[in-house]
Design goal:
The protein has about 500 residues and is an alpha/beta fold. It has three domains: about 90 residues, 3-Layer(aba) Sandwich (Udp-n-acetylmuramoylalanyl-d-glutamate--2,6- Diaminopimelate Ligase, Chain: A, domain 1); about 220 residues, Mur-like, catalytic domain (UDP-N-acetylmuramoyl-L-alanine:D-glutamate ligase, 3-Layer(aba) Sandwich); about 160 residues, Mur ligase, C-terminal domain (Protein-Tyrosine Phosphatase, Chain A, Alpha-Beta Complex), CATH 3.90.190.20. It is about 30% helix and about 20% strand. The chain is built from 15 helices and 24 strands. The strands form five sheets. Strands 7-10-6-11-12-13-14-15-16 form a nine-stranded mixed β-sheet, with helices on both faces. A six-stranded mixed β-sheet has the order 17-18-22-19-20-21, sandwiched between helices. Helix 1 crosses helix 3, helix 4 crosses helix 10 and helix 14 crosses helix 15. The radius of gyration is 24 Å and the shape is globular. The C terminus is likely disordered.
Length: about 500
């Protein structure tokens, strides 16, 4: 694309005046990835400022840099804008020919449930013969194939537009995208035109980034500013922040929840040994289906996905058929089953609210003891650590406290804060909980404690296949480790079944 076309789209001014007939071959924000022909965007982040790498970008052959302040010492051509993040979003839309205008784009935001709702929406659309792409936490689906797990829940703007464009090339007729509060605050989805925007809930998390819950809520709310003229909002209004959001949205809103006036009303949830019966009212019409998902909280996620289906004009009778085909989402209340006479469940729950709901869900499917295993991430919101310790002490019969992704923090210091909460709840070490810092050893130890009818909930990492330690990043998958531990006990070689 001609450089002049891109500069016109973003309203950039060249430091040197006129711009010649230069072709741009790529848009880049990482100075290490620049190749000749790229246009570099100098983004200002919490830990790095792209303006500091202009010399490196010039040496690597970039045709120019979009900046918010001039570096007079650097010879690279610089194009000035007020906000480089907004400029990147607009430039990416122009460069990839505005893909979000060409098919329905569905955005999902909220503290918990984004991934599950995105997968459920994709499943319901697939049952209608609508090929739907996916951008999110677990992996990206741009057509037939899955792309390796995302580094960010919400990618940078240039990557979002590139992947949406690839989806169209691969025959997708819709796309669903998880939109995080970080992504919204950093304008990564800037320029996207959403046909449907979903709000699941808002609970305490990411308060190491956002100053308080009000700022967190405002960041989430910005998704609903990007709805097109025909756009619909789908909002869970059992949540008080959802109720506030409904009162602020000017356009059409579909509400979901247990409240009697909800457009998608959750009537009942009946747990079964391997799933549940759910009954909804969709604009007053009854919809009942057997689903394979564990956890009463999934009623909210299913209702949200049904709200999207309704927003897209899918008949309620067909929605009921689609619900039968729903499957567990990777790392979300995902069973690890090698025929053992007890349950092992892996879940991504890493906030107090999510851990509480996961333990409550696991209890519904437990005949014996409920054992909880979890840790907390380092360099993240610290106050949730003690709260999660209290919740596990209250809801589980026994707790194993271990490491999650300690990052650059000392693992034992994180564990101490969790233990403080566990002790506040009246638990006694050795009797009600134990500490094993090594996560692999903790999982093996927990599985060794299991008796017929028990349930082990391994929480915190879910689908992740890595662990970030102070010494670096290593491969680690809770599901793999659990399977290995079960095999070591002889399961998988004989026909054991749950009682």
């Amino acid at each position: 694309m001609r450089l002049t076309t891109l500069l016109g789209a973003i309203g950039a001014v060249s430091r040197r005046g006129s711009v010649g007939p230069v072709e741009v071959t790529g848009l880049v924000v990482d100075s290490r990835k620049v190749i000749p022909g790229d246009l570099f965007f100098a983004l200002v982040g919490s830990s790095a400022d792209g303006h500091e790498f202009l010399e490196q970008v010039w040496e690597r052959g970039a045709i120019g840099a979009v900046v918010s302040r001039i570096n007079e010492r650097c010879p690279i051509e610089q194009f000035v804008v007020q906000d480089t993040r907004e400029a990147l979003g607009l430039a990416a839309c122009e460069f990839y020919d505005y893909p979000s205008r060409k098919f329905p784009l569905i955005g999902v935001t909220g503290t918990n449930g984004k991934t599950t709702v995105a997968f459920l929406v994709r499943s319901i659309l697939a049952s209608e013969g609508i090929k739907c792409g996916l951008l999110g936490t677990v992996y990206n689906i741009l057509g037939e194939d899955r792309v390796s797990p995302s580094e960010l829940t919400t990618a940078q703007a240039n990557d979002i537009q590139r992947m949406l464009s690839l989806m169209q090339e691969n025959g997708c007729r819709a796309a669903v995208m998880e939109v995080s509060s970080h992504g919204l605050d950093q304008k990564r989805s800037y320029g996207c035109q959403f046909q449907v925007a979903i709000f699941t809930n808002l609970t305490a998390d990411h308060l190491d980034y956002h100053p308080d819950m009000e700022h967190y809520f405002r960041a989430k709310s910005t998704l609903f500013n990007d709805l097109g003229k025909q756009g619909r909002a789908v909002v869970g209004w059992d949540d008080p922040f959802g109720e506030r959001l409904v009162s602020r949205i000017e356009g059409p809103v579909i509400t979901f929840g247990k409240r009697k006036k909800s457009d998608i009303r959750i009537v009942s949830w009946k747990p079964l040994s391997e799933g549940a019966w759910i009954q909804l009212e969709v604009f007053g019409r009854p919809v009942r289906a057997k689903v394979s998902l564990l956890g009463r909280f999934n009623a909210q996620n299913i209702a949200a996905a049904v709200g999207v289906a309704a927003a897209m004009g899918i008949n309620p009778s067909r929605i009921a058929q689609a619900l039968f085909s729903l499957r567990a989402v990777p790392g979300r209340m995902e069973p690890v089953d090698l025929g053992q006479p007890f349950r092992v469940i892996v879940d991504y729950a890493h906030t107090p609210d999510a851990l509480e709901k996961a333990l409550q869900a696991a209890r519904e499917h437990t005949q014996g003891r409920l054992v909880s295993l979890f840790g907390c991430g380092g360099c993240r919101y610290r106050l949730k650590r003690g709260a999660m310790g209290e919740i596990s002490a209250r809801l589980a019969d026994f707790t194993l406290i271990t490491s999650d992704n300690p990052r650059s923090e000392e693992p034992s210091a994180i564990i101490e804060e969790i233990v403080e909460g566990t002790l506040r709840a009246g638990s006694k070490e050795g009797k009600d909980f134990i500490v094993e810092q090594d996560r692999r050893k903790a999982i093996c130890q927990a599985i060794g404690l299991m008796q017929p009818g028990d349930t082990l909930l391994i929480a915190g990492k879910g689908h992740e296949d890595y662990q970030i330690l102070p010494t670096g990043k290593i491969h680690f998958d809770d599901r793999e480790v659990a399977r290995e531990a079960l095999k070591d006990l002889g399961y998988g070689r004989q026909n054991n079944s749950l009682p």
